[in-house]
Amino acid sequence: MRLLLLFLITFLSTNLLPAQELIIGSELVKPGIRVIFEGAIKDDVTPSDLHLEESKTDVHLEARVNWALDKAVTVPEGAPRGGFVAYLTITAEVINERTRERLEDIQIVPHINLIDNLHYARNISLPGKRDDLYTVKFTVYPPEGNQLALHKDWRENHSDQLFEQTQFEYKNVDFEEIANASRR
Q1: Domain limits, the chain
Q2: pLDDT tens for residues 59-74?
Q3: 19-180: which CATH topology?
Q4: What is the DSSP letter of 47?
Q5: Nearest in space to 32 (alpha carbons), one of 6, 69, 59
Q6: 95, 88, 86: which is closest to 139 by C-alpha?
């Protein structure tokens, strides 16, 4: 009986449950913002006229952007640890390392779900085969112009913007397992 139970647990956890999200990279942006880039399982996202249909999607490209939870990281006074950082512009570029085909200027936009809550994401179709390796470049821009007003205390203690524009590049990203997985 114990052997049968162990077999069922192993079978269900490896064959029927969705694959976990692929962590592409985790970065810390001053002043204490944690950015986690992921390749997630394709999903049904609305409004459908603005997002790639699930059936045409290989990967749900994500950026979870929150004030750092890690107590070793200093966050600005008043920043809610783990809280979503809004009003950012995030773009991505996905380059097939075999063919050099690329998807450029992918706009990673705000989404909400019951797993990650508020995050930035976009359904994409890979520029090549699912089993190819990819280079992924993310650019994270601070809020512009009138998107976020900064009080005097913030400007005096930090900067005249939330953070500096920054870019992250990851090579040899293998999306195959995530691209072949399904939520349904």
Answers
A1: 19-180
A2: 999 999 999 999 999 9
A3: Immunoglobulin-like (2.60.40)
A4: S
A5: 69
A6: 88
